[in-house]
Structures are given as structure tokens and as C-alpha cells.
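Summary for the funding panel

The consortium committed to producing paired sequence-structure records for every protein in the target list. Below we show the first two records in order, beginning with the earlier of the two.
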Amino acid sequence: MSRELVIVAAKQDSQGNYIRPQRASETPDEIAFYPENGEPNVVKLSGYGPGDTIPNGKYYVTFYDPTTKSFLGQFMSVSGYTIPGIPKPKNIKVVSTTSGATVTAEG
């Protein structure tokens, strides 16, 4: 049996709470991050920038057998963390007003 560590993104309920994945209902399509080549027990999450915060329970880690395409064992929550660095404003929008402007941005 082959075994590698994988990360699955949790679904959310109607209140926005993260739901622990269940082995019986998850499919390989749910895998968000795979291990590094040659390192079956190391997975690197990517796609985030400085200042981004990843909350507790957004991701779950488990072992996966790529030969049988099945999950092994329990899904365990990945602890939340913040990417170091200074966030930069994104999607800046300026709307003129009679006395100046309203500026909004995402960060």
C-alpha cells in the first residue's frame, strides 16, 4: 500500500463553520494540496500572500493511497496561521463625493 500526506479544503455549513471531511464521502477531487515530489510526508500550502490569515479548520490533513484512490485514517485539522509580511491593499476603488471621495480596498 502506497501512502502520502494530502490536504483537503473543508466545506462550510450555512453559518460559515468549517466541517470536518468524512472519509466515506470525500473524493480525490477534494484534494487541495499534494506532497512535494519525493517527500510523501511533506505538503506545502501555496497561493497566499503577506498578511493573509488562514483560519483553524479551513484545511484538513490525512493520508491518501494514490494506488487505490482512497483516504486512510482520520482527517485532522490544520491549525490556523498568518503569512508573515505587510499586506498590500488590493482592488482599490475611488468614488467621488461632493466634498472629496470614498476610497475602499481589500487587504
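The next record, for a separate protein in the list, is shown here:
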Amino acid sequence: MSSHDVAVLIGRFQPFHKGHAALLEKALATAPRVIVVLGSSLQARNAKNPFTWEERAAMIGTVLDDELKSRVSFVPMRDYYDDARWSMAVLSAIEGMTQPGQRVALVGYLKDASSQYLNRFPDWEFIGMPQQGDFDATSVRQIYFEGEDAAVTRVLLEGLLPISVVHYLKGWARLPHFANMQAEHLSIESKKKKWGTGPFITVDAVVTAADHVLLVKRGFAPGKDLWALPGGFLESRERVMQGAIRELREETGLALLETTLEGAFRSAAVFDHPDRSLRGRTITHAHHFDLRQGKLPEVAGADDAAEARWTPIAELKGMEDRFFEDHFNILNHFLALTN
């Protein structure tokens, strides 16, 4: 008889590979009920997170028979880029799915610093597993997106993924999402070879006026056609606010004096989560400017922005899955969009 009532498995599973399958098998052997927390959910697709949480749940479901499926539940979890807030959200979700007094186990593999989140649940018994093979999801995505010979790619993937997931990915490769994510992956890898992986310093501008916020639509990969904050890389002789104002003007054409923008400045915050950007270690300084005026200034997309527009703040929460990288979280920080 199991000594636990529930086993929790946390991961991104992008995609679900044999190492993940071993963890799931251990979780099913640990407790009669398993809750799989699917990280990096509720956001736009990108080369690091190409599959939605629903697609990942379906992917995992392919390795389970009907009896096992009845024992497994899935919980989508957004990236807060704030470890304390994220762990509280996970705890709240699990508490909402369990009964008081139930014994919870956390099954996982402490890989490196990226796995330290597993230590944030001291009330759950941690059941560790050894590494299952010398590979990870990053290497799987490289094979999937970079393989030029379909037959060779399939053979390589069969060594790393459950065969049912190989079939799933073969079907997914016929969808339009594959070509978009492949192009983004190749673009990012090319830029990494040219510029390295950081650390980089960037600046962003959160500009509000009359219950609207100024957004741009990205014109190029990564994140082509996703909504973002006006911003970019800091130049060598700039202060961070100067850089934010320069990028704001270049991408939106906002024709306000620098002194006007400085007078509208309300606060700034640094966003430095190691995983916030696909381009590498990128630390951004975001600045909030509140124009507090009834008439919205004219704007137009330019430079790296295909479009610029004033968006009602009330609409932002419904746009979470259309934002570039962590820009929804930056807006959430300044504008309190979610709990």
C-alpha cells in the first residue's frame, strides 16, 4: 500500500522524453493519484516552449493506458519569473485539488541550478530520481528543428522519446506551428553564434495614458508578430532611462520631449530571471511612464516594430498568450493585471 495519497510531477516537458517518462512512472508507483504541473503555460509559443499545455497533456497521455489516464491530472502553470510567487501558485493549485491531511510526494530530478524550484516545497516528501540518459529537452528540440533528413531525425528521436511521442511530433510537424518555431529556433541559434549568450542589458518602456498602454508588434524573429513593450539593447554610453526613451521614440515615433517623459516617470524595475529570454542571459530595466492625459498621442511602428498601438489596459489579461517572452509579466508587475 502506498504511503502517499498524491504524487506531484513538475516540468515543462518541451517535449516529453524518456527521462520524463521514467519520472512519471515513478510518480504512478508512489501514489494512486498523480498531478502533473505543466510549467511555462498560458504564454505565446516560442522556440523553447513550442507546445501549448494542452498539447503537452495530450503528448503525455499517449504513453498512458485508460486506467493510468484516470489517475493523472494536469495543471497549467504560468511563468511568474518570481520564484516565491510561482511556488505559492503551485501550492495553491495543489491544495485546491487535494483534501486536507493528504500525504503529498514530489517526484523529480535535481539536475542543476534550474531544478532548485524542487526545494521550495518542504512540506512534501521529495523523491529523487537519477538522470535518465545523457540528454535533455533542449537537445531533443535541436534534433527536431535542425534535422534535415526526416528518416535520420526519426531514428534519433526514437532513441530519446517514447515511440508514441515520436508519432505525435511527426503529426505536429505538419502543422503551421512547426515551420514558425523552426524558423525562430534557427534564427536564435544563428544569432547566438554571432553575439554569444550574454549577459546582455536591455531597456523597456511601459507607457500608460488614459487607461491605455503603448505596445508594439515585433517585426522580426524572435517573437515575430507578438506584442511587446517598446525596448531594445542599451548602448554603451547611455543611462538606462535614456536608453528606454530612445528605444521608445525609435519604435513608436512618440513625439514627446525628453523632459516631458522624465516628468511622467513613475518607477523602474529590473527583470533578471535567467530564463526570461531565449536569446541568452538578458537583464532588462523596465521604466513606467504615466502620461496622465486624456488624448492619446499619435504613434506609428518603426525600426524593429511592425506596428505600434495604444491598447486598453482592460484587454491585456486576455492577451497573455500573445506577448513576447516575459513582457506580460512586466506589465503585470506595474499594472497588477492578475492576482
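Regarding this second record: Residues 73 and 336 are 30 Å apart (CA to CA). Residues 6-177 form a domain with the Rossmann fold fold (CATH 3.40.50.620).
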